[in-house]
Design goal:
heterodimer, B: mainly alpha
Chain lengths: 640, 503
């Protein structure tokens, strides 16, 4: 493996960002789009080549996939042993992520050429896409925990810029701010977690940390540190904090609130950020430190699994009642990421060798079909200029291609064989079945809900009879929009056949395929039943939904308002933090601290006036105080 | 070599006085400050290349002239990594400060005279190795501030100027007292190296340290002596704001490190906890106060207090890394805040308001200024790739686990990264994004050449340090390692607890 071309994979999008960002205004907008796409295409080819080389040619030595570090150099030395290195790590998950990120990003680049046509800040848009892709690749390739944190923050900022791309729209700015601040709040825990873990692990280097903290022989936590706080050891607390950081980016409950709002950004951006890349950063983070979690903190893994499972079902329930098609997809993303998170966390009840693979497998397939869903939803939005599914219906004849690819994606996410989602989801459910039955049941119910809300979406958009007002977008049906859709549709059909258990495993060694008939049958049956229920309700325009809403009453309103989580946040931030902390603090500063300092000044002046002979005015008054104080203090010293 | 830092301003001032027109005055000042900048770049370059040689002893260009033999006062100068970082910062801000005042029409000669005097005070302060000389230059830098604010300022400038000078003079009084205290503690010298070698008796340290730290702390806006900062900044003309928070507050931090902590490590060990608490209060409290501000200059002033309190934490923890972080933070914050104040000044010139609720969507009409403003904001909230991140990380990682107490302090100050993000986004969102609500803002003109040059220089250095911190980090380490080694000998027990040093 040649180090230079691995460096090019993240470097090219960065070059694109700098070049387009600085000089984009000097040439036509179209060129900057083409240029950005070209840079990324090269980087995608390199990533594909690297993946091929790694998985099929040279990655495995003696049947085990090796971890190598083709590039590493010292960037900032805190102290001789605590060095921030920048480098690249090559192991199964990073290679897989390279491929996912570049591929989805390339699709989005191509798609945007038509979708964003005519946009005034077209070249800025491509510059931001380049920055985002670079940050994500930088994160994925991190060799050092600070490098990881840097990539993490860069991803946060570039997603902030993309979500707030329509910056003259107040709702977009608000959504961008919300996304940034909530993830930043989580990052605070992440940073504290890094401080704790790097202190205990005595390094910032990820491989060193893993070897220091995941083997009994080198595991040396001195006694005062082992004593825990609230039943957890200090290391567990650190790892939990790191997970909270991941939960922020991956939109786990209760930090999920930013993701639905982030749909304010352009739709291709949602496909990139909220389907395939940024939101799986948390999953990647847990996977990266998986050996440490498994060995040193199974208790934290349990928390991770419970968070993931709860989020999965919680978001799926909300997705069932939303009308904005992008928001349905957003909640669906949250729910699917919940699957990945709990698949990793299940190791807390005993390591199952499939857990890790299943999570990574689902990450891979989900990236493809969710990007497809977002991009085809983008086509629909572009076609009728509305996000509301109540404005849609019977579009299957008017947009046949979109209809087909959307159906494929829906089948994939619902877990119908032989589409991609089936294999990964089944693997996750199989792991849950073996380790924790309660989570298994939650997983199965969520799978049913998933099939239900996805087909609710599908039938409402493409089947339900309704006169639709069409404001055909100017780029509808152009090749740059349809080609990515078709490519991704092929992916959504075929990705399930990739033998992940041979390629991406927790220790690099392939594991045998194993399937559990009960799980398989149950998963398929519940998905099919849910699709039928959905068809029964939404295939035609009928009164069942309204009746159901009436019957459910308060429960419906609770779900429709997303369990009032946003309101709770607003209450805490606006009412409590702003009014009960910031306001009093500012008041104290103005009226107490400042006044007392002024008082000293005033008293001094008074004294100086009362003892004045020649001076007048404050400066001189002060000077006398100055000299007097000086004299007294010098006298004290001379006597002491 | 170092004398040039005093000779160049003298020549500049003389030449400037010969000029009659505003154009000539500003050109001469720009040339003079530019020469200072080039000189400091040469020094930095020389220092870095010399530090790679064997037998390098951290201090360079050392000279000493007897000044007041009766009191053993010498004009002793020399630079190490720490002072060079500060000198480079001062040179950058002086030069950009002249650019920011390019269109001063009211008494330009006097204005630039004050500006140059102020920067000379800072240069002299940073090159001195003698306590009395340091104090001398510290005082030189105070009076121009008063004049700049009270003559060229705006708003309640008389009040602010008085307040600022009173408080800074108060700080100076405490500093002078403690310098005399050190002198009469039996050492009878003002030379830093000699005092360090002789060692101040512990009982004296315990008395002097709090006085001296408070004195320099006032300059660094240590809670609760920070109130001069918001008022002073809000009334000061742009260049003076840049100088105040970019250089003046750094003189305090430098003094805390070089004089208070370095000369009195035992007292720092025993009494530092008190100032650590004040510093962490400053970090969090100022950040919360910023949330409530609506004036751009107040926002940046309070945010400066928060950032500078982090400097104090880094210094008080006394590990190599945390002190390096503190110096990096001074450097980074100086650039960032100068950039902020410069752009705020430019915006104010155009919109005639600094109230964020009266502005919106300025990015549309002011793309260049807006981008610089956003970049400064991102630096303030610690975006990787910009200098603020490097500095904050170095402080956090250098301080963590000096002791359980320090850990709590650090975790509390880490929380400021969230509050910072909130106020930066609140400000940027309000001022830069959104639709333009005011008709007249549709016809604003983006930066002129001097403004663009200023923004490019400062942004360039911020990005340079953020992406390639190793040269600065290495240079500062060269200055700090001997300091900490000396302190380690004074307090073996305390510093050996620190994991980062043991390794």
């Amino acid at each position: 493996m040649n180090a230079a071309y691995i460096a090019l994979i993240p470097a090219l999008p960065l070059v694109g960002f700098i070049f387009i960002g600085l000089f984009g205004k000097y040439f036509p907008a179209k060129i900057s789009g083409r240029l950005g796409t070209l840079f990324l295409a090269v980087s995608t080819c390199l990533a594909g080549w690297e993946a091929y080389q790694y998985f099929f040619v040279s990655g495995a030595v003696g049947g085990t996939y090796q971890t190598t570090y083709p590039i590493r150099f010292s960037w900032l030395e805190f102290s001789p042993k605590l060095i921030v290195e920048i480098g690249t790590i090559i192991d199964p998950i990073s290679v897989m992520m390279l491929l996912v990120v570049t591929l989805i990003s390339l699709m989005v680049h191509i798609y945007s050429a038509a979708y964003m046509r005519g946009e005034k800040r077209y070249s800025t848009y491509y510059a931001f896409l380049g920055l985002f892709t670079f940050s994500m690749l930088f994160l994925v390739l991190s060799i050092n925990i600070i490098q990881l944190y840097m990539g993490w923050e860069l991803v946060g900022v570039s997603s902030f810029l993309l979500i707030g791309f329509y910056y003259d729209k107040p709702s977009a700015v608000a959504a961008a701010k919300k996304a940034f601040i909530i993830t930043r709040f989580a990052d605070m825990f992440f940073l504290i977690g890094i401080l704790i873990v790097s202190y205990i692990g005595k390094s910032l280097d990820i491989p060193t940390l893993i070897s220091n903290l995941s083997h009994a022989s080198s595991f040396t936590i001195t006694s005062p540190l082992a004593t825990g706080f609230m039943g957890f050891s200090l290391l567990s607390w650190g790892l939990l904090m790191i997970f909270i950081g991941g939960a922020g980016k991956s939109a786990m409950f209760p930090l999920h609130v930013w993701l639905p709002d982030a749909m304010e950004g352009p739709t291709p951006v949602s496909a990139l950020i909220h389907a395939a890349t940024m939101v799986v950063a948390g999953v990647y983070l847990v996977a990266r430190f998986y050996p440490i979690y498994v060995f040193s903190a199974p208790d934290v893994l349990k928390i991770i699994a419970i968070t993931g499972a709860f989020t999965a079902i919680f978001a799926a329930i909300i997705a069932c009642v939303q009308y904005d098609i992008k928001r349905v997809l957003a909640y669906s993303t949250i729910s699917q990421i919940g699957y990945m998170i709990f698949a990793l966390g299940l190791a807390g009840w005993g390591v199952n060798k499939y857990g890790f693979t299943a999570a990574m497998f689902h990450l891979f397939t989900h990236a493809i079909f969710k990007a497809l869903l977002f991009l085809s939803a983008g086509s629909v939005i572009h076609f009728i200029h509305s996000n509301d599914m109540r404005d849609m219906g019977s579009l299957r004849k008017k947009m046949p291609l979109t209809h087909i690819v959307f159906l494929i994606a829906c089948l994939a996410i619902s877990g119908i064989p032989p589409f991609a989602g089936f294999y990964s989801k089944e693997m996750i459910l199989g792991v849950a079945y073996q380790t924790n039955k309660i989570i298994f049941i939650i997983g199965i119910i969520t799978a049913g809900l998933t099939a239900f809300y996805m087909f609710r979406l599908y039938f409402s958009i493409f089947w339900r009879d309704k006169k639709v007002q069409i404001i055909r977008g100017n780029a509808h049906g152009s090749a740059s929009m349809t080609i990515p859709l078709m490519l991704l549709a092929f992916g959504a059909i075929g990705a399930g056949f990739i033998p992940f258990q041979k390629l991406v495993t927790f220790n690099g060694q392939p594991i045998a395929m194993e399937s559990n008939n009960i799980v398989t049958v149950l998963a398929i049956v519940i998905a099919v039943v849910s699709i039928f229920i959905s068809a029964f309700i939404y295939l035609n325009d009928n009164t069942i939904p309204t009746k159901a809403v009436k019957r459910l009453g308060g429960v419906y309103r609770l779900i429709y308002s997303k369990f009032y989580i946003d309101e709770i946040y607003l209450f805490i931030t606006k009412k409590i933090i702003f009014n009960l902390v910031a306001r009093p603090v500012a008041w104290i500063d103005k009226y107490i601290v400042d006044s007392s300092i002024n008082l000293i000044g005033a008293v001094t002046t008074e004294i100086s006036i009362s003892i004045k002979t020649l001076q007048s005015g404050r400066i001189q008054g002060y000077m006398s105080w100055f000299l007097g104080a000086l004299l007294v203090l010098v006298l004290i010293f001379m006597m002491s | 070599m170092l004398q040039l830092f005093l000779i160049i301003p003298a020549i500049t001032i003389i030449l400037m006085m010969l000029m009659s027109k505003q154009q000539g005055v500003r050109l001469i000042s720009a040339i003079g400050m530019g020469a200072q900048l080039i000189l400091s770049l040469i020094l930095v370059f020389n220092y870095i290349s010399a530090s790679k040689l064997n037998g390098f002893t951290s201090l360079m260009y050392e000279t000493s002239y007897s000044w007041f033999p009766a009191f053993n006062i010498n004009f002793h100068t020399g630079v190490d990594g720490i002072s060079l970082a500060m000198i480079l910062l001062t040179a950058l801000i002086s030069f950009t400060g002249v650019l920011a005042s390019w269109n001063i029409t009211e008494k330009p000669k006097e204005f630039f005279f004050n500006l140059i005097l102020l920067s000379t005070g800072a240069f002299g302060f940073f090159i001195s190795r003698d306590l009395f000389t340091m104090f001398f230059f510290l005082e030189i830098a105070i009076i121009p501030k008063f004049l700049l604010i009270s003559i060229w300022g705006s708003g309640r400038n008389e009040y602010s100027a008085n307040k600022l000078v009173l408080m800074l003079m108060g700080g100076s009084a405490l500093i002078l007292t403690s310098i005399l205290g050190i002198y009469y503690s039996g050492i009878h010298s003002f030379d830093i190296a000699k005092i360090a070698a002789a060692g101040i008796p512990v009982s004296t340290q315990l008395v002097i340290f709090p006085i001296m730290f408070t004195g320099f702390g006032i300059f660094t806006a240590m809670f609760p002596f920070h109130t001069w900062v918001p008022d002073g900044h809000s009334s000061a003309p742009t260049a003076a704001s840049m100088f105040l928070s970019g250089i003046s507050m750094k003189m305090g931090g430098y003094g805390c490190l070089r004089v208070a902590v370095f000369l009195m490590p035992k007292a720092t060990e025993q009494e530092g906890w008190f100032f650590l608490i004040l510093a962490v209060i400053g970090v969090v409290y100022a950040a919360f106060t910023t949330l409530r501000q609506t004036d751009l200059k107040y926002i940046n002033a309070y945010s400066s207090i928060s950032h500078c309190s982090l400097v104090l934490i880094g210094i008080l923890v006394m590990s190599n890394t945390s002190i390096t972080g503190a110096v990096l933070q001074m450097f980074s914050h100086g650039l960032m805040t100068a950039l902020f104040f410069a752009i705020i000044g430019m915006i104010y010139q155009r919109t005639h308001t600094r109230d964020i609720s009266k502005m919106s969507g300025l990015l549309k009409t002011l793309p260049f200024l807006g981008t610089g403003f956003i970049l400064a904001g991102l630096c303030s909230l610690g975006l990787p790739g910009l200098s603020g991140f490097v500095a904050e990380m170095t402080i956090f990682f250098g301080s963590y686990n000096a002791s359980a107490f320090v850990n709590v302090i650090i975790i509390l100050s880490v929380s400021s990264i969230v509050i910072t993000a909130v106020y930066i986004l609140r400000m940027t969102g309000q001022v830069m994004w959104g639709p333009i609500k005011q008709e007249e803002f549709n016809e604003l003109h983006d930066g002129k050449w001097n403004e663009k040059l200023l923004i490019t220089i400062l942004c360039g250095v911020i990005i340079l340090v953020g992406t390639m911190p190793f040269w600065l980090n290495g240079m500062i380490h060269n200055g700090i390692d001997p300091l900490v080694d000396a302190m380690k000998q004074a307090l073996p027990a305390k510093l050996s607890q620190n994991l980062l040093i043991v390794h």
